[in-house]
Batch of 2 targets.
Target 1
Amino acid sequence: MFKTYHIKPMSISTQLMLVVALLCFGFNLKAQSLSELKTTSAENNLNLKAQFKAFEAQLEGVTQAKSWQDPNLSFGYFISPIETRVGPQIARFSLTQMLPWFGTYKAKGDIAAFRAEAEYEKFQDQKLKLYLEVAQQYYDLSALRHIADLEAKQLRILKDLKSVIESNYENNKANLVDILRVELQIDKQLSVIQVLKDQDQALVTQLNQLMNRQLKTPVLISNPKQILEEKEVMQTDSVSKNHPRLEAIRQLQKSNKAESELAKKQAMPQFGLGLDYAIIQDRNVQNADAGQDALMPMLSVSLPIFGKKNKSRKKEALLQGESLQFQLENEKTRLESEIQVAHYKQDELYSLLDLYDKQLLNLKDILQLSEVALANASMEIEEVLRLEEERLLYEKQRVRTLANLHKTDETLSYLTSNSEL
């Protein structure tokens, strides 16, 4: 005998809680655009954070460079007091402050400030490179998922072909081996789809690593096909005048000029201001100044008579300046070369895209005719499978070409960016 259980309906409050939970889950898994992924990576990427901390550490050097030298305080005690007219001298305090030539501290501060600016430009370049890497991973993932959709579509086509062959077999218009041949293709297609799922997870892991979040966090892309079909051609042919890679060298050049100025300042004498305080013991001698401590202001000047090191400093700054100028010219040439290579690649990809579009258009007509012929048993299944495989191959190549076009556009965007982004 069966027992009957009555299930109570959920209360309204429970239903509302479930709805809210589903909504929250849906918002957490909403698709993110490329710009949102770039922003997330800029906020969380560990390598970028390390670069910014390096800039902040370099910035602290400005305060250190502009700070005065610490004064020197010395104390001396005479084991055998020195007799003076007003009494024996038993101890002495000395306080000395060295002062460099006028403008020395400013030059040191400028050197540190310009080096900090160069470090900031490196941070800017690192951020732009991170954006480029995120974009490349994003378009690779979009292409992979679009290809997965094409492979799933191919699986449905193979199953439809199997139904046609089975129908022909029942009517003695096909052989059993034809059915087995299609089944082999279906098994192969299922294996390909599984491999694509594994590759998808690998790309998601790499993208999450760039954003410094849980490696298995889902990355949702609303419409991979639509994203890849959006074509934007970068027309810029010239290097940005203030690209971070160039600005970093320019800031080092400014630092080098400040170093040249500092070398001149260090060739000048330094001044020292001091104060001596001597403690005199009172021995009740008959003198109005007996036992009165002595106070003596002092002035000292360094004598930069050994000029070799100063000449070496100036020559070092000059040679470093020439080296930086060569680096700047070389970096400009490299950027221009990379831009030209990206444009050549862009033209090549557009030519391939036109070729694939033409091939797919021709194959579409051929396949329509071949499907009719297969249904009438006037065409072998091997030829139909070959045509379907060829069509799938061109479709996948077209998808990869579209992804490479977007990646090339992102590369051009990086190469023509400026440090203000």
Target 2
Amino acid sequence: MKLLIADDDPQLVRALRITLAAHGYDVVAAPDGAAAITAAAQTHPDIILLDLGMPRLDGIEVIHALRGWTNAPIIVVSGRTGSADKVEALDAGADDYVTKPFQIDELLARLRALSRRSVPTGGEATVSFGDVVVDLSAKAVTRDGERVHLTPTEWRMLEHLSRHPGVLVTRQELLKEIWGSEQVSDSGYLRLYMSQLRRKLEREPGSPAHLLTESGMGYRLVL
């Protein structure tokens, strides 16, 4: 799998190149925003790791440019820890956000999640977590082998999360997916439906292991 690292920190790039290559990734590096766009166009990476604070186009500008022609997953790897920075990057089209400094095991887990995020659309498409099986083709959910009744809205929310396992799904994305407009105001509906899903699907709804909230940003389904 080809991976593009866009970061102006040569030591970090060198360390990541060695580690990720050892895990089977074919790594390409770019030292600034403009070079990142050129490298992406030339090499067509499967996943992109992108810093926000780069010379010659910052990360947000790079995301906008890339999203004009590629759907390759983008993980922002940045020292900016503010919620506003995270939301801006995710709204621009990033798929996930990792804050520096980070543990390499966490980054590898995020990469694995993104590499399998596209669920096959054939008749056997299923996603499993805990004792729950989500059949995307039959639009059915079972828990311990027993059918679970979901409302249409609960299903749409779970279906979207199931099609992007391990990936942070923003509140704006879910609002658009469920109600068809980014302009819909979230007045607690998402929290309500997530609470209902946890009650039906989690062993401990108060301490969920799979349907997780990313504070201030959105939700993530962990398999």
